[in-house]
């Protein structure tokens, strides 16, 4: 199989869209990612997968903290900003959760301290110990087959 076939197959898994953020010496750094999952309930752990070429990789290694911001359906522009898809500079305002930078309006904000890191292939997996969570009652931004999507609620069937 070639790289394109592998990427296409992986794109058939519908995911939420996140922005991973960290802070080093007062500067906030962020990256759009969909490689995120929960690992453990006790202790509460999550994992993010960061490519070796990503600028944020060494920032997380240095700071030992990160946040996962699960984007809401109305936050596609933020996803595009942190994916480097928008050419014009847009100012992004961050809030704080447990002293860590988070995006206002996200469906979920998850603050983490790095508990372990594992290099696998061309990515580093950061295991994060969750230190705080903030939730909003919103619809998530969804990514499937290379496109942004939104959820559509099923209509009840009446007989």
From TrEMBL:
Keyword Transport annotated: no
Any Pfam family the entry gives: Flavin_Reduct
Highest taxon, organism lineage: Bacteria
Alphabetical UniProt keywords: Oxidoreductase
GO biological process, one term: pyrimidine nucleobase catabolic process
Protein name per its UniProtKB record: Flavin reductase
Keyword Oxidoreductase tagged: yes
GO molecular function: FMN binding; riboflavin reductase (NADPH) activity
Domain spans labelled Flavin reductase like: 10-150
PANTHER family given in the database record: FLAVIN REDUCTASE, FMN REDUCTASE (NADH) RUTF
